[in-house]
UniProtKB/TrEMBL annotation:
<dbReference type="Pfam" id="PF21317">
    <property type="entry name" value="BetaGal_ABD_1"/>
</dbReference>
<dbReference type="InterPro" id="IPR048913">
    <property type="entry name" value="BetaGal_gal-bd"/>
</dbReference>
<keyword id="KW-0378">Hydrolase</keyword>
<dbReference type="InterPro" id="IPR026283">
    <property type="entry name" value="B-gal_1-like"/>
</dbReference>
<keyword id="KW-0326">Glycosidase</keyword>
<dbReference type="InterPro" id="IPR001944">
    <property type="entry name" value="Glycoside_Hdrlase_35"/>
</dbReference>
<feature type="domain" description="Beta-galactosidase galactose-binding">
    <location>
        <begin position="500"/>
        <end position="558"/>
    </location>
</feature>
<dbReference type="InterPro" id="IPR017853">
    <property type="entry name" value="GH"/>
</dbReference>
<dbReference type="Pfam" id="PF21467">
    <property type="entry name" value="BetaGal_gal-bd"/>
</dbReference>
<dbReference type="GO" id="GO:0004565">
    <property type="term" value="F:beta-galactosidase activity"/>
</dbReference>
<dbReference type="Pfam" id="PF01301">
    <property type="entry name" value="Glyco_hydro_35"/>
</dbReference>
<protein>
    <submittedName>
        <fullName>Beta-galactosidase</fullName>
        <ecNumber>3.2.1.23</ecNumber>
    </submittedName>
</protein>
<dbReference type="InterPro" id="IPR031330">
    <property type="entry name" value="Gly_Hdrlase_35_cat"/>
</dbReference>
<dbReference type="InterPro" id="IPR048912">
    <property type="entry name" value="BetaGal1-like_ABD1"/>
</dbReference>
<dbReference type="InterPro" id="IPR019801">
    <property type="entry name" value="Glyco_hydro_35_CS"/>
</dbReference>
<feature type="domain" description="Glycoside hydrolase 35 catalytic">
    <location>
        <begin position="10"/>
        <end position="326"/>
    </location>
</feature>
<dbReference type="InterPro" id="IPR008979">
    <property type="entry name" value="Galactose-bd-like_sf"/>
</dbReference>
């Protein structure tokens, strides 16, 4: 049994003063087989604590269906950290931001049109409490007060950047305490008046998040909390990338300089991120800071952090360790052997099949008067296919998808006619309808729900309706395409691609190692390795390769399935041993 608390300006573990030097590693962004490697490297860098969010949507993808296995085995991750002698900070939702889909909130919340998020709204709180009823009893034995490694847990996350509902925050605090959480509770916010005023909870430690100017940040914190330790809960030592951007980097010497300032002030610190990892599957989030802005995050969450996406120490790792060694006696560095990387080379695609030929094999038709959003139909991620018949003749008019979320391929009589995107409202689609009419099909991709800010109510698919001129179109057939089960696909030989298609081939492996998949020549889509969704690729960059962790591969034959929305200049992929971002 142990206690972690603070008195005056210092933290104490039992009766010993302690400074927390912590780093964020999200268990859900790294395969379980690599957790120990990343944690050992964190400790070898001089850190004494690891921090992780808990992603609600990962654990409860469908209401009432909770799971904690595999990538979601947060208990095992925490126990492993404890076995390595690390303290653990847990930030257990309901909202985490984290550039993660919908900020960690489950998409099924949006099926209720009246749902209010992140406030004292009983239906929302009932869902949170039901989740806590399962999650918190799993964490409670891992608290330091019960002999485990967890020393602190967060209430909400950067709430002052969103709202000021203190009744809501107090409810979360009471919900945690009533379920046996008796370790230090804290909040974290930006070092600004409105954020601190909105996010602080009486009797709960406040921490601040920043990437620079620590003196200024901590002075603002002390205005609101003069008698407590100072801690940066998120020291942003790198940054994340959106599609269409350049890869963000930050010089190692600048990160080290600011860290030295933080430690010289006697503060504790948590690096966000120590190891970023990967937004596997469809779990990337998006930013939308205004009503009409939308910026989806890429698959890689490299973050230009201390460990690369594949877990290798960077120049930033060694620069940070050197600074820490000024304050802690570290001794010689002891790192595990590098994770083996292999360039398996070129793999030709052998088989192909079109989406439309397989709609009834991998989905089932839903008939409705008007197109419904994903959430209303019970779909969380992926794609959704809508079709209707437009009678003719009609003169040329404009075709509207009203409130499209997020990107649509529009087909007329099976031919791709336009690509519409919510971030490109200037793109217009006009056509005339012949006497025999037109079959209209629309494939919409959910590119990731907004994870931060005032526009998080981000329903996906066609959220209002489709118009030809002033007339709303009805009588729709819809296919949900989460792409979670592709076993029904029927492949044939290669052919000229004229619509979204699946491609399949086999990678033969003698020794499974980490590798990187180059999608050079491909346009946009999703890759599956042995049924595991690696995530999205898109030739607009900055990401050029996709990280393939070795544990996903097996000795012998490995199935590769690619869902390409547009076309490829070369029906082959190449497995390389060096990633490309930029």
């Amino acid at each position: 049994m142990a206690t972690f608390h603070y008195s005056g300006s210092s933290f104490y573990y039992n009766d010993q003063a302690i400074r927390l030097i912590s780093g964020a590693i999200h268990y859900f962004r790294t395969l379980p087989e690599h957790w120990e490697d990343r944690l050992i490297k964190l400790k070898a860098c001089g850190f004494n604590t690891v921090e992780t969010y808990v992603a609600w949507n990962l654990h409860e993808p469908k209401k009432g269906q909770l799971h904690f296995e595999g990538l979601a085995d947060v208990v095992r991750f925490i126990e492993l950290a404890g076995d390595l002698g690390l303290h653990v900070i847990v930030r257990p939702a309901p909202y985490i931001c984290a550039e993660w889909e919908f900020g960690g909130l489950p998409s099924w919340l949006l099926a209720d049109s009246d749902m209010r998020l992140r406030c004292y709204h009983k239906p929302f709180l009932d869902h949170v409490d039901a989740y806590y009823d399962v999650l918190l009893p799993k964490l409670q034995p891992l608290l330091c007060t019960n002999g485990g490694p967890i020393i602190g847990m967060q209430i909400e996350n950067e709430y002052g950047s969103y709202g000021n509902d203190k009744r809501y925050l107090t409810h979360l605090k009471d919900s945690m305490i009533s379920r046996g959480i008796d370790v230090l509770l804290f909040t974290s916010d930006g070092p600004e008046d409105a954020m601190l005023q909105g996010g602080m909870v009486p009797g709960v430690l406040e921490t601040v998040n920043f990437g620079s100017r620590p003196v200024e940040a901590f002075n603002k914190l002390r205005e609101y909390q003069p008698e407590a330790p100072i801690m940066c809960m998120e020291y942003w030592n790198g940054w994340f990338d959106h599609w269409r951007e350049e890869h963000h980097t930050r010089p190692a010497e600048d990160v080290a300089k600011v860290l030295d300032e933080i430690l010289s002030l006697g503060a504790s610190v948590n690096f966000y991120m120590f190891h970023g990892g990967t937004n596997f599957g469809f779990y990337n989030g998006a930013n939308g800071h205004t009503f009409d802005s939308y910026e989806p995050t890429i698959t890689s969450y490299d973050y230009d952090s201390l460990l690369s996406e594949s877990g290798e120490p960077t120049a930033k790792y060694y620069a940070v360790r050197e600074v820490i060694s000024k304050y802690v006696d570290l001794g010689p560095i002891e790192l595990p052997a590098p994770v083996a990387k292999r360039a398996y080379g070129r793999v030709e695609m052998k088989e192909q099949t079109s989406l439309t030929a397989n709609l009834n094999r991998i989905s089932a038709p839903i008939h409705s008067a008007y197109p419904e959003s994903m959430e209303k139909l019970g779909q969380d991620y992926g794609f959704i296919h809508y079709s209707t018949f437009l009678t003719g003749p009609r003169p040329k008019d404009e075709f509207f998808i009203q409130d499209l979320h997020d990107r649509a391929l529009v087909f007329l009589n099976g031919e791709l006619t336009a690509t519409l995107d919510r971030v490109e409202p200037e793109v217009k689609l006009e056509f005339e309808v012949p006497a025999e009419g037109l079959q209209v099909s629309i494939l919409v991709e959910n590119l990731g729900r907004v994870n931060y800010g005032p526009f998080m109510r981000d329903c996906k698919g066609i959220t209002e309706g489709v118009r030809y001129g002033r007339q709303f179109l009805s009588e729709w057939t819809t296919y949900m395409l989460p792409l979670t089960d592709l076993s029904g696909l029927e492949f044939e030989g290669l052919f000229r691609q004229a619509e979204p298609c699946f491609f399949r081939s086999t990678l033969v492996v003698d020794e499974p190692c980490d590798t990187f998949l180059s999608m050079e020549g491909w346009t946009k889509g999703v890759v599956f390795i042995n049924g595991f969704n690696l995530g999205r690729y898109w030739n607009i960059g900055p990401q050029k390769t996709m990280y393939v962790p070795g544990p996903l591969l097996k000795q012998g034959d490995n199935e590769i399935v690619i869902f390409e929305l547009h076309s490829t200049s070369d029906t082959a992929v190449t497995f390389v041993d060096i990633p490309e971002l930029g």
